[in-house]
């Protein structure tokens, strides 16, 4: 087996670094070309994520308070349903952000599409 020399290891590290920097530059260039991704778009997305967590949490609390009022027990329905609503909201937000991230990273480039048309 061939054992890599120090020079080969260094060259490999440089290639990996160049690929990583190239990928980040590529994403930043695409972000600059995308007109929809302004400050208001980002703030709107934060609002959507916040509401997707807040609504199920508040619904869980409301249902818990109602259950505690009419079916009071030693267990706290409010606390249990608060945690359940929070978990559902966080899962919903995580799923949505994950889909958006996948969409951002899998978009075809405008330059590649223009080259294919020529």
Written account of the structure:
- The protein is an all-alpha fold.
- It folds into two domains: 1-33; 37-105.
- The chain has helices at 6-33, 39-70, 77-106, 110-117.
- Helix 2 (39-70) runs antiparallel to helix 3 (77-106).
- The chain is elongated, with a radius of gyration of 24 Å.
- Poorly predicted ranges (pLDDT <50, ≥5 residues)? 110-118
Q: Tell me what portion of residues adopts beta-strand conformation.
A: under 5%
End-to-end distance: 47 Å
Main sheet, how many strands, which sense, barrel? none
| Silhouette | elongated
Q: In total, how many domains does the architecture comprise?
A: 2
Radius of gyration: 24 Å
SSE string, helix = H, strand = E? Answer: HHHH
Content-based structural category: mainly alpha
Multimerization status = single chain
Number of helices: 4
Arithmetic mean pLDDT: 82
Helix content: over 70%
The total beta strand count reads: 0
Topology at a glance:
Elements: H1 6-33, H2 39-70, H3 77-106, H4 110-117
Short description:
By secondary structure, the chain is mostly helical. Helices cover 83% and strands 0% of the residues. It has 2 domains: 1-33; 37-105.
Label this structure with key terms:
118 residues, mainly alpha, 4 helices, 0% strand, elongated
